[in-house]
């Protein structure tokens, strides 16, 4: 039986990985000038970072329940938050070109 602490731990892992995906996607979209460069880096780098975060949160900290198989862990703790984070950045946030910066930051 899954305890409440395990469910909360799993929600923490999913929430942290969703935030990592959204912030990393935004960072790469702002820093890279080409559209395809950002897409390639997001698809390659963000899941790798999420996997490391998942290993750190579930290993030493012991958050989340035993999900049974590694495919389930990757699906629930990496793929789902990746999809949510990227969708959040691409569909909810304005594109980097639409964001107006203060004058002192534009000159730099």
Automatic annotation (TrEMBL):
The chain crosses the membrane at residues 6-24, 36-57, 69-92. Keywords: Membrane, Transmembrane, Transmembrane helix. It comes from Halococcus dombrowskii. InterPro entries: DUF7991. Signal peptide: none annotated. Pfam families: DUF7991. Residues 1-104 form the DUF7991 domain. This is DUF7991 domain-containing protein.
